[in-house]
């Protein structure tokens, strides 16, 4: 381990720049693809909103969400993972071969060559994800009772790489993306501008070629809150087999539509 004093200013500048580059375009592109997929899948959007409202009703009823509250948004995390499976921010990754080696498949890789694996292709392979691999289905990430995101084989989902060089910012990325997604979707209803073309631009990061042009409307949470209340009264444990629901938390009548709607309006 190097002594603290031996890090030059230039070295520290590079570390800081690396964090900015690794942590900005990756998360922002993932969010563009996420918001687009959500606009195309109203069923998923409703489940995300139900989950967030349930957590808000049970908790303080106001934004921003706290760390523990964000941690409970399992369906949202599943939807973000599903986004990264289909549209990985880093679509392919290369490794430089330092010394002659043989891969588990028997392929010889000579020193000085490079091995590139396609994260994009791996997310869309039938033999890894099944026949419905091209569908946007956050449910595939959830345990059967819908209460936690299942731990897939670490080398099956490689949007953050895996093993010793796994993304250092993975947990931070989920925290940031969940917080932003929740804040935007609770306040706004997004619709893609008619005629806008959504296309991929292959680069070091998987951009949207023309960005994502959306119309931003106001979100009416009343139908969602009605559903949250209705299921809470019925005492059903989950929504659509996925999302843990609000039980009577002793605040019945005190967490009103008005209280919940006010901070997010
Ligand atoms: C959706 C968001 C993100 C995705 C998809 C992502 C993806 C990746 C991938 C695939 C790698 C491995 C690159 C390689 O093996 O060559 C990586 C490495 C890394 N990421 Fe992320 N990343 C994300 C967000 C972040 C954030 C927010 C930070 C920091 C604030 C960050 C910091 C890093 C660092 C420092 C490495 C290098 C780790 C190493 O080489 O040991 N990433 N990331």
How would you summarize this macromolecular structure in one to three sentences?
With 265 residues, this protein is α+β, with helices and mostly antiparallel strands. The protein has nine helices and ten strands. The longest helix has 32 residues, at 9-40.
Secondary-structure topology with pairs:
Elements lengths: L8 H32 L1 H17 L8 H5 L2 H13 L5 E5 L4 E2 L5 E2 L4 E5 H4 L3 H4 L40 H18 E5 L7 E2 L5 E2 L5 E5 L3 H13 L3 E2 L3 E2 L12 H8 L1
Antiparallel strand pairs: 1-4, 2-3, 5-8, 6-7, 9-10
Helix pairs in contact: 1-4, 1-7, 2-4, 2-8
Bound molecules: protoporphyrin IX containing FE.
GO molecular function: heme binding; iron ion binding; monooxygenase activity; oxidoreductase activity, acting on paired donors, with incorporation or reduction of molecular oxygen
Keywords: Heme, Iron, Metal-binding, Monooxygenase, Oxidoreductase
Cofactor: heme
What does this structure look like?
The chain has helices spanning 9-40, 42-58, 67-71, 74-86, 119-122, 126-129, 170-187, 222-234, 257-264; strands at 92-96, 101-102, 108-109, 114-118, 188-192, 200-201, 207-208, 214-218, 238-239, 243-244. It is α+β, with helices and mostly antiparallel strands and 265 residues long. It has a two-stranded antiparallel ribbon with strand order 1-4. The longest helix has 32 residues, at 9-40. Bound molecules: protoporphyrin IX containing FE. One of its GO terms (molecular function) is iron ion binding.
């Amino acid at each position: 381990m190097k002594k603290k004093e031996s890090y030059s200013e230039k070295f520290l500048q590079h570390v800081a720049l690396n964090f900015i580059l690794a942590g900005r375009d990756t998360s922002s592109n993932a969010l563009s693809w996420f918001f687009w997929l959500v606009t195309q899948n109203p069923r998923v959007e409703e489940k995300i909103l139900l989950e967030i409202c349930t957590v808000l009703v049970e908790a303080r009823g106001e934004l921003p969400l706290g760390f523990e509250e964000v941690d409970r948004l399992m369906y949202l995390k599943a939807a973000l993972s599903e986004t990264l499976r289909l549209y990985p921010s880093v679509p392919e990754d290369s490794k430089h071969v330092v010394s002659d080696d043989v891969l588990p498949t028997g392929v010889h890789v000579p020193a000085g060559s490079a091995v590139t694996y396609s994260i994009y292709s791996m997310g869309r392979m039938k033999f890894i994800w099944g026949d419905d691999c091209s569908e946007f289905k956050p449910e595939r990430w959830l345990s059967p009772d819908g209460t936690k995101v299942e731990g897939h084989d670490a080398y099956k989902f490689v949007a953050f790489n895996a093993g010793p060089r796994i993304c250092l910012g993975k947990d931070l990325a989920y925290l940031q993306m969940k917080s932003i997604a929740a804040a935007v979707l609770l306040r706004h209803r997004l619709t893609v501008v008619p005629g806008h073309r959504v296309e991929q631009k292959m680069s070091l990061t998987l951009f949207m070629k023309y960005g994502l042009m959306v119309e931003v409307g106001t979100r009416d949470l009343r139908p969602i809150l009605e559903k949250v209340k209705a299921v809470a009264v019925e005492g059903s444990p989950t929504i659509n087999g996925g999302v843990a629901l609000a039980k009577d938390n002793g605040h019945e009548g005190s967490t009103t539509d008005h209280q919940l709607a006010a901070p997010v309006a």
